[in-house]
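Predict fold of Right-handed parallel beta-helix repeat-containing protein; 369 aa.
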Amino acid sequence: MKSHTSLAVTVACLATAGIGLSSPAGAQARPTPTQDITVYVDDAAAPKAATADSRAGQGSFQASTVAEAQRIAEASRARNVTIRLAPGVYPPIDWSYGGRGGRITVEGAGAASIRTSADGSAASGAADASAPAATVVRCSRAASEYGVRVRAGDANATVSGMTIEKCRHGGVYVKGASSVKVRGNVIRYIGSKHVSQGDPKKEGFGGVHLQGASRATISDNRFFYLENNGRSPAGMHGVYAANNADRTIVENNRFGYISGDPVRFRHGSDNARVTSNRFWRTGFAAIVSDWRFGGGSEKCGKGTVLKNNIAGNRTYTNKKYYPDASRNTVKATMRKWGKGDFEARNIGGCNPAPITFAGGNKWTGSRPW
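Predicted 3D structure, encoded as tokens:
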């Protein structure tokens, strides 16, 4: 795979794409204001693909880096922006442009295919050599806390089709957006255990970290080896939805080897649905938890429903999970809520219960995929 690190950028309108762009090939181009644009990042097949996907009023452009793609989007004032990443290895992505009420889509060519060993681990993260070339976002600098950050105001956001790895704080971070979709990604080797550079006191939060982002759908992803090894191993999660991140759907994902609870809701993140996921050797207090910090200033969540999930009956540290009758003790179980430190006096304390069952949740002694 290629490594996409060039800072020198030449942007060309794709006149051959057949969508009404007239700038000659190789010329510097400023997009005309439009509803929709697609920017192909280092994709040699862009003209052909753009012809197949073109619609009235849509523009198509090519860039050498994601940073240049964002400059194109800002200049275009487009409402809907799709960034299509060719196969290769990319540095971390930090996206901040958003058209009001539009959608920002960051789309890779596909995530790595992971071979799993008999115990359900990711076979040391080895990729399937027969799989097509993947789009990989890799954090290689100490300052690269997240693989993909989207902070685009009230715009909708989609992140799909890539592998995100070797980041200290998290894989995907979305703040404030509506109708968030994170799907079809492999997010692996996240947290202080996997990043030797930088401040060792800084540890990871989540494979997907939502802050006040409503109506998020996290689906068809694989989360492997999300681990902190410092003061806060329990602070790392697969999906971490905080600060009124309401109506989150976590569906049909695989979670393995995560040092904290694989799904964590915090501070008034209400009405989530966690369905048809598979968990193996993951979790600290629970498979799904609702937690409050900040000296009592944070509020309980409510309305979260668990349905049709299958979870390995051992935590990340190989302790046994207990039946749900023990939810108000310090023993780990399928669901749990509390505040501050994980100890008996802090468990529970929410009325109504933030998390309820809707049937079909099961424990297993062998990996469920």
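The radius of gyration is 21 Å.
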